[in-house]
Amino acid sequence: MRRHRIASRHEVSTPVRPEVEVRRSARRTRTVSAYRKDGKVIVMIPARFTRAEESEWVDTMLLKLDGSGPRGRRTDEQLMKRARELNREYLNGKANPSSVRWVDNMTTRWGSCTTGEATIRLSDRLQPMPVWVVDYVLLHELAHLIEPSHNKRFWHWVDKFPKAERAKGYLEGVASAASLGFDTCE
């Protein structure tokens, strides 16, 4: 596999934020990405960015990584709103939960539904996962309000979600990695 040359690299650190390594690449033209490695944040940017653009992107990526940015912690209110949207889009408005919320005590399942009370709970472990994975689990639990068991009718509703198989595979991969001792939270 061919490795890409990095145009330049430098580190930025202040008392109020983690150590940041900025990697400028001539091959990278428009995209910016960031990840954590060995206790520091690596931010990869196009080589042509000015120092001002670099600073702005470093701040943006730090916010995203620490959870207070656009992909930060989703609230119970946002989860209920998304449940209503998914219900309309995929379930013809047939599932009407009385409560949808995040819980931090669910360690063996991704979500649960109490059909008698029409309540849905999703594990906090889903918080850092892609939106389409959370949507799949939420839709799965919503479908239980229409069809309590995992029968053909239940899967008819769930499989309307375009990324259902992909989300199942993602969750299976996370579960498998966790069972092998890998940290799946970052």
From TrEMBL:
CDD domains: M48_yhfN_like
InterPro entries: UTP_pyrophosphatase-like, YgjP-like_metallopeptidase
Stretches assigned to the YgjP-like metallopeptidase domain: 96-171
Pfam families referenced in this protein's UniProt entry, alphabetically: YgjP-like
Protein's UniProt name: M48 family peptidase
Alphabetized Gene3D superfamilies for the sequence: Metalloproteases ('zincins'), catalytic domain (3.30.2010.10)
